[in-house]
């Protein structure tokens, strides 16, 4: 595995300069195809910094919940990063890709306008990421003030949405990116082990969550990370945080645990029962595993997300038993991109936008793959998930834990 272990004297894990050159060459190629003179990536630390994905992917500058950073890249040059306290934060060993890191003094829009004026794009085509809808952002991510500063400074320029350009560039992961996601998944599985060791009757739900978060950080995960959580008898939905209730025998804990290694977020979804598992879920996990493994073989380049959604329902219909708790169970596809942050495509039981369903899989795409299984009466559901990568032979799991329920205590 490359660039996972820190070299002597290295302060932070980093990607290689070869990876930098690959990304910049790819973006320049896409910019030429779209006839863009420059791409601007506004700052936005929303959704656990997922919305900073384009900036960090492009510049290697970022990390931390308050790291508001904007960036831009000209069609024939290297990127500029715009950050508060640029010298102390981003030119002191945290990254070695971007040399032009400027102090924005918290006014990212003005600093962006100043750099754009240097590039002489007064009558050019300025692409802006977050100007239009993204994977999880139907309203975009650019702040109104940021947009107005650019619009007012360049009334004769053509401002176009470049959200799709960077999304496309980030779809297929390099081997270095897959290695980093694998490291992230390893951290997640350590946290799941600690969750199972900690969850006992009488222990507060919050304290189990805290042990998970501590394990993530102790093993190198950055903060913030997404970690929705829920516990209770036959729980079906996660919340944004745990409760302070004491756990009871037979409780089910469900969560979406992510670790952030160099900002790359794998995800694991692992149902954990306290001391004893619900017999219904014992049957549901068997069916979910069968459907999951059948779908893995179909996760190949060229297949559309919509085709996978249909196969999920068909496989479950064929594989569901005729008798018992799982008889007549149904399934829905649930998967979304994993990487630097807001990676696509995205399909969940409630979000099935046509443009997302139409996306064709490409080799090197990475997803959290977690199809849901529900009983015929919809009273119980089971979901288990692992980060996978698309290969010519099908989906390959990055995790190593068994595909099953876990029993804590």
Assign the CATH class of the largest domain: Alpha Beta
> What would the principal axes of the Cα set say about the shape?
globular
CATH topology of the largest domain: Creatine Amidinohydrolase
N- to C-terminal distance: 34 Å
Which second-level CATH architecture of the largest domain applies?
A: Alpha-Beta Complex
User: Low-confidence parts lasting 5 or more residues at pLDDT below 50?
Assistant: none
Biggest sheet: strand arrangement: 4-3-2-1-5-6
Strand content: 15-25%
Work out the helix count. Answer: 11
The structure class reads alpha+beta
Descriptive report:
The protein is an alpha+beta fold and 409 residues long. The chain has two domains: 155 residues, Creatinase/prolidase N-terminal domain (Creatine Amidinohydrolase, Chain A, domain 1, 3-Layer(aba) Sandwich), CATH 3.40.350.10; 234 residues, Creatine Amidinohydrolase (Alpha-Beta Complex). The protein is built from eleven helices and 19 strands. The strands form four sheets. Strands 4-3-2-1-5-6 form a six-stranded mixed β-sheet, sandwiched between helices. Strands 7, 8, 9, 10 and 19 form a five-stranded mixed β-sheet that branches. A five-stranded antiparallel β-sheet has the order 13-12-14-17-18, sandwiched between helices. A hairpin with a 5-residue loop joins strand 2 and strand 3. Helix 4 packs parallel to helix 5 and helix 7 packs antiparallel against helix 8. The longest helix is centred in the middle third of the chain and has 24 residues. It is globular, with a radius of gyration of 22 Å.
């Amino acid at each position: 595995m490359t660039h996972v272990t820190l070299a002597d004297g290295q302060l932070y894990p980093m990607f290689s300069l070869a990876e930098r050159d690959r990304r910049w060459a790819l973006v320049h190629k896409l910019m030429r195809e779209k006839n863009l003179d420059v791409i601007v990536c506004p700052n936005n630390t929303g959704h656990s910094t997922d919305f900073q994905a384009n900036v960090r992917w492009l510049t290697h500058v970022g990390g931390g919940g308050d790291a508001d950073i904007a960036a831009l890249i000209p069609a024939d040059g290297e990127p500029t990063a715009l950050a508060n306290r640029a010298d102390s934060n981003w030119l002191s060993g945290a990254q070695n890709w971007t040399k032009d890191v400027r102090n924005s003094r918290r006014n990212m829009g003005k600093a962006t306008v100043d750099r754009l004026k240097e590039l002489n794009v007064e009558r050019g085509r300025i692409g802006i990421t977050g100007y239009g809808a993204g994977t999880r952002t139907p309203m975009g991510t650019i702040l109104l003030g940021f947009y107005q500063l650019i619009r007012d400074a360049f009334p004769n320029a053509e401002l176009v949405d470049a959200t799709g350009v960077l999304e496309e560039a980030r779809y297929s992961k390099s081997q270095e990116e897959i290695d980093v996601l694998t490291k992230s998944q390893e951290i997640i599985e350590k946290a799941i082990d600690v969750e199972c060791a900690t969850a006992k009757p009488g222990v507060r739900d919050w304290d189990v969550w805290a042990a998970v978060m501590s394990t993530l950080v102790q093993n190198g995960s950055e903060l913030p990370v997404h970690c929705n959580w829920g516990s209770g008898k036959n729980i079906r939905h996660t919340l944004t945080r745990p409760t302070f209730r004491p756990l009871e025998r037979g409780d089910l804990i469900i969560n979406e645990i992510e670790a952030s290694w160099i900002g790359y977020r794998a995800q694991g979804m692992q149902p954990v029962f306290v001391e004893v598992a619900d017999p219904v879920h014992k049957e549901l996990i068997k069916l979910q595993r069968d459907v999951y493994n059948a779908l893995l073989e179909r996760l190949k380049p060229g297949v559309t997300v919509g085709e996978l959604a249909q196969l999920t329902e068909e496989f479950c219909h064929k594989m569901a038993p005729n008798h018992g708790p799982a008889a007549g169970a149904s399934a829905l596809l649930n998967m979304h991109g994993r990487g630097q942050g807001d990676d696509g495509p995205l399909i969940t039981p409630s979000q099935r936008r046509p443009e997302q369903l139409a996306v064709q899989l490409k080799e090197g795409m990475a997803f959290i793959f977690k199809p849901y299984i529900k009983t015929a009466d919809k009273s119980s559901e089971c979901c288990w998930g692992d980060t996978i990568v698309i290969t010519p032979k099908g989906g390959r799991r990055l995790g190593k834990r068994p595909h099953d329920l876990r029993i804590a205590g």
